[in-house]
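Much of our argument rests on the idea that a fold can be written as discrete symbols. In the encoding step, the backbone of a single protein was reduced to a row of integers, each denoting a local shape. We regard such an encoding as a compact summary of how the chain folds. The record that follows shows the chain in one-letter code together with its fold in token form:
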Amino acid sequence: MALTGIEIFKLLAKTNCKECGFPTCLAFAMALASGKAELAACPYVSDEVREKLAEASAPPIRPVKISMKEGVKTVGGETVMFRHEKTFFNPTLISGLVTTAQADADVDKKLDTFMKLQYDRVGLLLRPELIAVLDASGDAGKFAALVKKVIDKTDAGLILCSDKADVVKAGAEAAKERKPLIGVATPANADAFGALAKELGLPLIAKAEGYDALADLTTKLTGMGLKDLVIDSGSRSLKQALQDQIVLRRAALVPKFRPFGFPTITCPCQMTDDPMMEALYASVFIAKYGGIVVMSELEATTVFPLLLERLNIYTDPQKPMIISPGIYEIGNPGPDSPVAVTTNFALTYFIVSGEIEGSKVPTWLLIQDTEGLSVMTAWAAGKFSGDTVAHFVKKSGIVDKTKTRTIIIPGYSAGISGDLEEELPDWKVLIGPREASHIPAFLKSL
């Protein structure tokens, strides 16, 4: 039976050293109990306690790390079926695909496109993270050369796929500077791939059709000493693959069936030849438990919507979407450009900044920290008042960037104008429009 946070806490050293990344040992114990931390993070656990807590502290779905050129991405580590129960932690990783059967020019084009698919939204960089390299010929030298090209031309994390262990080993040696995910281990080649993954210390894809066969395979691989597995149910029809994702997640979380306690990989690239249907399938697996989604083509028209879907699903529903407070330059503003201020609720920012950009009037946009509240809600809560806005303007540094001493406030916060003028006697306060669609005309009238 799993231990509670208090029961785990009683076994810890209680130093409150913070070396685990948590402020107290009690907080660390609670994280262990909920599967959000690993026991290895505590440097003061005795061997006896470590053995006692190993089973209780293991997350139901093991987190598996894959290295990009800069940074590490994690899949797995989830603790709930539905995000409103708590939250989802590690977003689905989106992967492109290149094969040794493709012409060099086609590979180069795919890699160039991959590096361009990067979008800044809500202060976050949205992008695909992985490239799967597929062996189509059994030629180890050709496979290693393709892996090397991917490394040289991109910063992607790598998935190395072949049914031959020696081919994957050649690719893994070419990718030493990163920690790729390798595969594919099946019941037929489990010994060779298990030995290779253990030798190289790399995470391994385990693939088998049918739940019994998949459970037997992962049990065999973990019995060989492997811990970092990514499982592929082998299904290549949408209906069955979706069912598999749900069954695997539920089995790992509810009865805590250890053979299925690993993140999954899904392959829309092998389910259809229609790019739009492939994107649709990918959207299903992002919504329903896919740890990794592999697509044959990564194009802006399909990837951007998938990135937004992923952002929405993996944003904590208990926390508002916010952007960082500060000064945002829209349209390359200068010393005489107008200054506007609003809250850091993400939707407010995107609507307002979009209308300002559409006006073609370069503007300084001040974003005040209101804990993610909209203008009216923040005003009602006292977080967007004359005092708070004035304090933010003074400390923001805008006075050093512009000669303008006129500030535009949202129309819905007109009531703060008097207090704001008292707090900023050198500034003129203009009340902007209530509706964002009227912002372009308002700015042009200035």
